[in-house]
Write a structure and sequence with these properties.
The complex is a heterodimer of chains A (291) and B (165). By secondary structure, chain A is of the alpha+beta class. Chain A contains eleven helices and 13 strands. Chain A has three domains: 47 residues, Uridine Diphospho-n-acetylenolpyruvylglucosamine Reductase, domain 2 (2-Layer Sandwich), CATH 3.30.43.10; 114 residues, 2-Layer Sandwich (Uridine Diphospho-n-acetylenolpyruvylglucosamine Reductase, domain 3), CATH 3.30.465; 108 residues, CO dehydrogenase flavoprotein, C-terminal domain (Enolase-like, domain 1), CATH 3.30.390. Chain A has a five-stranded antiparallel β-sheet. In chain A, a hairpin with a 2-residue loop joins strand 4 and strand 5. The mean pLDDT of chain A is 97. Chain B has two domains: 75 residues, Ubiquitin-like (UB roll), CATH 3.10.20.30; 76 residues, DNA polymerase, domain 1 (Orthogonal Bundle). Chain B is built from five helices and five strands; from the N terminus they run ββαβββαααα. Chain B is globular and about 55 Å long. Classes of the chains: A alpha+beta (291), B alpha+beta (165).
Amino acid sequence: MQVPAHFEYEKATSVAHALSLLAQWGSEARLVAGGHSLLPMMKLRLARPEALIDINDLDELAYVRLEGPDLRIGAMTRHVQLFESPLVAEHYPIFVDAERVIADPLVRNRGTIGGSLCQADPSEDLSAAFAAVDAIAVIQGADSTRTVPVREFHTGPYETVVGPAEMLVEVRVPVRPGGSSAYEKIERRVGDWAVAAAGAAMWLDGDAVSQVGIGLTAVGAAHFHAAEAEDFLRGQAATDANFAEAGRIAGQNCVPSADQRGPVDYKRHLAGELTTRALRRAAGRARGLEA
Amino acid sequence: MQITVNVNGDDYTREISPRLLLVHFLRDELGLTGTHWGCDTSNCGVCAVWLDGTPVKSCTVLAVMADGRRVRTVEGLANGDQLDPVQQGFIACHGLQCGFCTPGMMLTARALLDSNPDPTETEIREAISGQICRCTGYENIVRSVRWAAEHEADARTAASQEVPA
C-alpha cells in the first residue's frame, strides 16, 4: 500500500489565510491543490513536507475570464475548466490541444493549472504552452503581488521563482488579434507524459510572421522556450519551408536526455518535427483554414 | 482529526489521520468495498468515485479533502432495488469479465451520460481513457454504455408521450 508519510494538515479558507499558514510553517510546508503530482511524490517519499496546506476551498481562484487585454486564468482552475472554456477555444486553441492530451479526463477533473506550473515537472505540457504564448504569472505574498513572465518562472526541474511564503494566484495571457496557436505532442500511450511536445503561437501580417512564440517540453529547453527558433521566424514569410527551418533550429537548440522514452537524437528529431507541425497548424488557424 | 463526508446520501463522521486516502476511507472505515483499489498511482482508475458530482481517482485524493463534501460510490448507483441503466447495460452487453474495473467504469459512464446523453463511441472511449480494463473488454464496455444511452433515450420518449389520466 502506498500512502504518504505523516504530515500536519491545514485547510486554507482564503488566499490571505493560505499565505499566513505558509508564513507560519515556513519552507517545510507545501500547498496542495489537485494533488495529482504532489500526492504520488509523497507516496514515494520523493516529497516529504511536514505540513500540507489544502487550497481546494479557494473557489475564488477558479476562473477563466477576459479582463482588459488579458485572458486571466485563476491558479485553482481545474484542467477540465480550461479544456472546456469557450473563451480559451476562441482565443488560444493551444490550450485545448494541450489539455486534450494531458493525463486523462479523471485526472483533468482534479488537477489544477497553478499546481501544474508550480510542480515544475520538466515534461509538463502547460509550461510549454504558457511559454509559447508568453504568459505572465501573478505571484502573491503577504504584503505584495508581483508578476513574472512564465518564461522566467521555472528555475530548474521542480523549482520555480515562487518563494516559500508566496503563492501563484493567476496566469495572464495577452489577447491579440490576427493570430492563433497550436500544440503537438507525442506520447508512448494515451495519457502519458510527453516524449516531446511543442506549442506555437503566431501572429500574421499578410503573409509575414509578425510575432511568434514557441514552447517545448520534455526536451530540456531552458524555461520551456525555443528562443532561437522564434528569432529566426519573426519577420519571415509564413511558409512551410520557414516553419521547417524553425523546427530544425528548435531541435538543434534543446538539450534532451536519453531515458526510457527514447534516445537523444530521436527526441531532438521530435522537438523539431513537432515545432514545425505546431507552427503550420497555428498558421492555418490564423488564416482561418483549419479548426 | 475528525471529518464528516456525505457518501451516497448519508453523512459519516470518523476520526482519521490526514494521510488516509479517500479510497481507504471508503473501503476500510466505511466498509464500502465496491470502490476498488488498484495501481495506487492514479493510472488504472478502478478507484474512481464522484466527489461533488465529478469523477475522480480516490487513490489520489486525501480523505480529509472530502470533508464536508459529497461522495458517490458504486453502492450509490442503483436507486433502491432499481439498477441504474448503466448497470443494466453492463449486464445486457456483458460489459464485465473479471469485474475489477467495473465500478469505476460505471461511475464514469454515469457522469458521461449525465452531461452527454447521446455519446458517440469515440466520446465514450475518451471518457473512460483514464481507466484500464485488464481483461481488455473495452468493446463490450462501450456497447454497455451505448445500451444505457439508448434505453434512457427510449425512457425519455415514452415519458414524454404519456398522456396524463
